[in-house]
Specification:
Blueprint lengths: L4 E6 L3 H10 L5 E6 L2 H8 L6 E5 L7 H11 L4 E6 L4 H9 L4 E4 L4 H27 L4 E2 L2 E2 L3 H13 L6 E4 L6 H11 L7 E5 L5 H9 E2 L11 E2 L1 H4 L4 E5 L6 H13 L1 E2 L8 E2 L3 E6 L3 H6 L5 H7 L2 E4 L9 H17 L5 E2 L1 H9 L5 H15 L4 E2 L14 H9 L27 H15 L4 H8 L3 H15 L1
Parallel strand pairs: 1-2, 1-3, 3-4, 4-5, 8-15, 8-16, 9-12, 12-15, 17-18
Antiparallel strand pairs: 6-7, 10-11, 13-14
Helix pairs in contact: 13-15, 14-16, 17-18
InterPro entries: AAA+_ATPase, AAA_lid_NorR, CheY-like_superfamily, Homeodomain-like_sf, HTH_Fis, P-loop_NTPase, Sig_transdc_resp-reg_receiver, Sigma_54_int
Protein name: Sigma-54 dependent transcriptional regulator
Keywords: ATP-binding, DNA-binding, Nucleotide-binding, Phosphoprotein, Transcription, Transcription regulation
Length: 476
């Protein structure tokens, strides 16, 4: 569904205003027409349109004064100036003052629609770029480390879902941080001061699972010598996180469904029900729909829990996050063990980036602890990495990847070293050319994958996309 944009037309000629409205009647925009400058200023006090079509000559004030007011207020809207023949120079001057474009009267239907469409699309794309740029500033978030685009998407979903009571169904491979995600949702929610209770449905025997969730009364079964509160009672007012939910027994899934629907449950062996206020979160490393198809997970429970889906990205898809997380673990464990480690050699960087990490963050954590415990030094080398990381890439592959972002330097003398007396002017090239060459080599090496190239070059993908787009525009 297309987004509807608000467009304000400030035009004192009623016939022209009606004509503009007729031209734009089929566009996905919400149109408002005003005849005077004061009416426009009053309107802008409470409503901020996406775009303003501004006539330069109004009965009570000039269009220039309105543009000046918009700039002073810092309104995030675009202004297109409409001018009569002979006032083009004035319109160009207003563009220097902040107007985005101008139209010369008489304005044709096609010109008006094309100009407005293009400006709204530029605004949309600029907003996307700004979002991407700002996203890289959020390097940590509620226990997470990483500024990659997949993680920024996770952060945004948590921000949006946390304030509600909606159930969040977290999926992802083992070791991707599903419980960290659940804790982040809890801490971002209004329930942050209430209990967060996590229960791993795959780590508890099936015959004890019901008691773990709902609790039991004294004498409910052999060994029940005392009454016991279950996770449901402990989480009252807070959040109950059911990890590996697809491991739960089918009969217990039926009771869980009723509990989620009513907020009421019965302890094992009890004769009366209890009522609690709980926010439910759940997670699995399996495909829940496949589990439903296989008959191992109730379909009605799946649809009751699957309100806000959230997929945790595998570590191999997180680019520079790998090194950020590895460096964090390295410094933490070095401090714990009294070691001097603080960084990785460039060759070790390459190996860490390109290893597929089937065990995700948990595996990376264990690898770094292994390195710190068994070795000494300041920088972690490839030889210090445990198998299979120390034989993942060949020497040639490591050399190629480590140097791909470094433009080749040539010297005119036979010793391959710069000579102060040698005329190097012919060898010096503009920095922008070297940058472009390095970026193009990286993209070619990654078979056109800009995101991977950005990871190798250690720059944000949005920067790379912008540069690539600028070059393609120049060549067009």
């Amino acid at each position: 569904m297309k987004q509807t944009y608000r467009v304000l037309i400030i035009e004192d000629s009623e016939p022209l205003a009606n004509l503009y409205m007729q031209y734009l009647s089929d566009e996905p925009i919400e149109l408002t027409c005003l005849e005077t400058g004061q009416a426009a200023l009053d309107y802008l006090q409470s409503v901020t349109p996406h775009l303003i079509l501004l006539d330069l000559k109004l009965p009570d004030m000039s269009g220039e004064k309105i543009l000046q007011w918009i700039n002073e207020q810092g309104l995030p809207c675009s202004v297109i100036v409409v001018t009569s023949h002979g006032s083009v120079n004035k319109a160009v001057d207003l563009m220097r003052q902040g107007a985005e474009d101008f139209l010369e009267k008489p304005v044709s239907a096609e010109r008006l629609k094309t100009t407005i469409r293009n400006q709204l699309e530029r605004n949309r794309l600029k907003g996307l770029v700004d979002d991407i740029q700002s996203s890289f500033e959020r390097n940590t978030y509620q226990g997470f480390i990483g500024s990659s685009l997949p993680m920024q998407n996770v952060y945004r979903i948590i921000d949006a879902a946390a304030p509600s009571k909606a159930t969040v169904f977290i999926t992802g491979e083992s070791g991707t941080g599903k419980e960290v995600c659940a804790e982040a949702i809890h801490h971002q929610s209004p329930r942050t001061k209430a209990p967060f209770i996590a229960l791993n449905c795959g780590a508890i025997p099936h015959d004890l699972m019901e008691s773990e969730i709902f609790g039991h009364v004294k004498g409910a079964f052999t060994g029940a010598s005392n009454e016991r509160k279950g996770a449901a009672s402990q989480a009252d007012g807070g959040t109950l996180f059911l990890d590996e939910i697809c491991e739960m027994d089918l009969e217990l899934q039926k009771k869980l469904l009723r509990f989620i629907q009513t907020g009421r449950f019965q302890k094992v062996g009890a004769s009366k029900e209890e009522s609690v206020d709980i926010r439910f979160l759940c997670a699995t490393n399996r495909d829940p729909l496949q589990e439903v198809s296989a008959g191992r997970f109730r379909e009605d429970l799946y649809y009751r829990l699957h309100v806000v889906p959230l997929s945790m990205p595998p570590l191999r898809d997180r680019g520079d996050d790998i090194l950020a997380i590895a460096t964090h673990f390295l410094k933490t464990y070095a401090q714990e063990e009294g070691k001097a480690f603080s960084r990785f050699t460039p060759e070790a960087d390459v190996v860490l980036r390109h290893y597929p990490w089937p065990g995700n963050v948990r595996q990376l954590q264990n690898v770094i602890r292994n390195v710190v415990v068994l070795n000494d030094g300041d920088a972690v080398s490839i030889k210090q990495l445990p198998p299979p990381l120390n034989d993942t890439l060949s020497d040639q592959e490591i050399l190629s990847l480590a140097q791909i972002s470094k433009p080749e330097t040539t010297y005119s003398n036979a010793t391959d070293e710069p000579n102060e007396m040698s005329p190097l002017n012919d060898e010096i090239r503009p920095l922008c050319d070297l940058e472009r060459e390095a970026i193009q080599r990286a993209i070619a090496h990654c078979d056109g994958n800009v995101l991977k190239a950005a990871v190798l070059l250690q720059i944000s993908p949005s920067t790379l996309y912008r540069k690539k787009q600028a070059w393609e525009t120049d060549e067009a």
